[in-house]
Amino acid sequence: MSKLVQMIPQPRWALMASTIALASLAACNQPGSDTVGQKVDRGIATTERTTERAADRAGQAMENAGQKIEAGAERAADATSDAAMTAAVKASLIATPDLSALAIDVDTSNSVVTLNGTVKSEAQKSQAVDAAAKVNGVKSVVSNLTISG
């Protein structure tokens, strides 16, 4: 490669090559062929179409990325709301008199609360289910509580 080509930055080199190519086309103007202006107009139109297609593809890629971000945010919000619901149910169990909240494990998935553990009576089992069900946002309660007396 010549020293001149090495000294010219890449974008300028491409512009110079395009200019030389257009000038060469203009020099080849023969009777019955397109004029220089027509050739330049056609080159500009082609460049505009290529740019529009690239912009459309970039816009579509940005829209797809936005949708993926929204979906990820929704999953994170669901996990956060389940964790908050678990904490609220546990607090409700602790606030229930005569109920040992430490013996009850609370799991929440998609706003469905599952209670696992042991209680002393059928009455405590009902109290635990009722305490969980009254928490805002709980869709249903699955009781896997056993009675040990």
Taken from the alpha-carbon principal axes, the silhouette is rod-shaped
State the major sheet. 3 strands, mixed
Order of strands in the sheet with most strands: 1-2-3
- What oligomeric state do these chains adopt? single chain
The percentage helix is 55-70%
Count of helical stretches: 4
| Uncertain segments | none
Structure description:
With 149 residues, the chain is α+β, with helices and mostly antiparallel strands. The chain has one domain (9-22, 34-147). 64% of the residues lie in helices and 15% in strands. The protein has four helices and three strands, in the order H-H-H-E-E-H-E. It has helices spanning 3-7, 10-27, 36-95, 122-133, and strands spanning 104-109, 112-119, 140-147. The protein has a three-stranded mixed beta sheet with strand order 1-2-3. Strand 1 and strand 2 (112-119) form a beta hairpin. The protein is rod-shaped. The model has no long low-confidence stretch (mean pLDDT 80).
Task: Please supply descriptive tags for the structure shown above.
single chain; 149 residues; alpha+beta; three-stranded mixed β-sheet; 4 helices; 64% helix
Put the structure in a nutshell:
By secondary structure, this protein is of the alpha+beta class. 64% of the residues lie in helices and 15% in strands.
Please describe the topology of this protein.
Layout: H1 3-7, H2 10-27, H3 36-95, E1 104-109, E2 112-119, H4 122-133, E3 140-147
Helix pairs in contact: 3-4
